[in-house]
Structures are given as C-alpha cells and as structure tokens.
Hints:
Layout: E1 6-10, H1 14-25, E2 29-33, H2 42-45, E3 52-54, H3 57-63, E4 66-69, H4 81-84, E5 88-91, H5 97-100, H6 104-107, H7 113-120, E6 125-128, H8 150-153, E7 165-170, H9 175-186, E8 189-194, H10 207-210, H11 218-227
Parallel strand pairs: 1-2, 1-4, 2-3, 4-5, 5-6, 7-8
Antiparallel strand pairs: 6-7
Amino acid sequence: MNASTTIGILGAGQAGSVLARAFLDAGYRVAIANSRHPRTLRDVIAPLGPRIAPLWAADAAAQADVAILAFPYAPHHKLPRDELAGKVVLDNNNYMPWRDGNFPTVDSGAGTVHELRQAQLQGAKLAKAFSHVQFHGLPHVRKPGDELPALVRLARPTGSADRVALSVWSDFPEALPVVTRLYDELGFDTIVGGPLSESWRVGPGTPAWRASLAGQSHADLVHNIRAAHRRHQ
C-alpha cells in the first residue's frame, strides 16, 4: 500500500479522472486540481472516496510527492513551477496540432512538446509517461470489460504472460525508477525510451500510438519505437 504517498494530478478531464481512480485503487492518496475553483470538482471526486482531495492547482502541486500533468501544453500556461521544483512530474500530453494549434519548434523538428513543457517547469524533473495508453474504452463493445478505459482494461499483475508495456522518456535518470514503479503497480511493464528529445517516437501517427488502444508487448513496443519516423508538419 502507498497510503502515505500523494499523487498530485493537475487536470481533471478524462485522463486525469481515470488516472485518479487507478492510483486510488493502487493505494495512493490523490490531490486533484483543474484550472478553476476546487468546488467545480465535486462531481469528479464524489464516487472516488475519502483519499482524494480537490485543491487549487498550486496546493495540489505542493502536496504532491509525484505530480501528473493531464492537460495539453500551451505556451501561455502559468504552471506552479515553485511548488513542483525538485519533483518528478509526469506529462501524459501528446502533440496534436489539430487540437492545440501548431508550435513552430515542434513542427520544425527543433524540439518536442515535452521539451517545451520542461522549459515551463525549470527545476522540475519532467518525464513523458502514460502517453500512449488510452483513457476510454473500445469503440465497439463485444464483451464485458471492453467498455473500460485501456489503462484499466490492459492492466495485468507482474509477471503475467500477456502484460503490456508503456514507455517513459526523461532527461533525468532519477525519474525513471519512479515511473517504472508506478507503471508496475498499475499493471504495466516499462520501456525506457530515451531523452525528451526522442519522445516523439510514441506520439500520434507512430506505430506505438496506433497500438495504444489494444496495447503492445515489451518486444512489440521496442520494435514500434525503433520503427517510428519523424514527420515534420
């Protein structure tokens, strides 16, 4: 159990809500925030029990032992940089210009959206994680369980033959065992992909991304990462 460890989740949409439940089920405490008043989270937390606290973003960041950014990157965001300094911060964002607009640095190949986010959070130890597993169910439900988010549906105990893998990308070696432990506790193996500059290899349009709903084995994810080709916009 991890009752003394708090996961701070900034972002309470589909991804943030599913992650909150998964970490609560794994025994963690959760502090969750959106960009508005904590009272706007009442419907989110109501079914999740007493170990989740709705807070202002800065307070959730301050209480977090590990933080998760569960919302898209935007250049104008003012993030709780001081409260996250020195902490491992997981970013599950992906670059989707059709959703968020185009960023010239990413379009040109000069950097990744996660490097841009790291620049917003100088002092934090950013890692791209939980970025190629889906937070919704299968589009066509054929059997019980298909309606569950892939993060829940694909989870398996350690050592299971059909366990799937997720990747982590970071410029900070100390972030890697943190993410590996969290992945394992939520039911996934880990592939260490590389630095943030290579994190595009599991983004939208890549082989790893296309397998994000069905999941991929350790060997398949390694193959898919290597098979990725960068497409400049």
